[in-house]
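Quick question, first post here. What does this chain look like in 3D?
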Amino acid sequence: MFGSHFYHEKTRKAVAIFGRLFNNVYIIRKNASGAVISQIKLPLAYAPKSRYIDRIRENPELSTDEDVAIKLPRASFEISNFSYDTTRQLTKLSNFSKPGSIGSKRTKMYSPVPYNLGFTLNIYAKSHDDALQVVEQILPTFNPQYTVTIKPFADKYPDFVEDIPIIIQQVSFADDYDGSLQQRRTIIYTLEFEMKLQYYGSLDAESAIIREANADIFFDSTNLADSDKRVERLSVTPDPLNVNPDSDYGFNTTII
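> Answer (accepted):
Ran it through. Tokens below.
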């Protein structure tokens, strides 16, 4: 529909980056004397909040072994929204160039399209101490922004890097301790984040490198039948003419 097929996996990489930020969080439990009695690595998964709440509130059936209540603490995250970011939009005709397959060619990609990708991180726990341990390990990292540097096109352009800011927007919590005695108590902390992404178009289009620039100077004689006569042409070419973009070269100027 729009030309050649391309897929940079930008959203998929964004999900992997966000999940990697929180895949090494631990909860430590101590006894009355302050000695550590257990250490738990917080399980993390990409899943909607509603699905996890249903799993948490399931009653286990020990006789049939069909329903198993989920263990806490646990965390999940999901994409919450996409939004176009007008504050980061560049000129549509601006582009980035890289050397092509041969010296006389270049690969050109136009300026990316800026989007804000919203993420929601949910932390589930049975006690406030477990939940607060997780929250206090996350909040100091975002002040309120944490920037990750990635290589979006590592296979083709390993030197091309991109900074992705991740901004924490809101922190809230809920506690269902007012429920029935048969209902499990679940404390849920919800953290809202915004990731600033850039979406790129196709990178495969190659075009010839400009090796000559001409500027014509005209004499404005509007009262004559053949007005705007050319009186001079200024031509600029690289020296040598077959130079590569990364080489050291000068320019030849010819006036006709």
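Residues 75 and 178 are 22 Å apart (CA to CA).
The mean pLDDT is 81.
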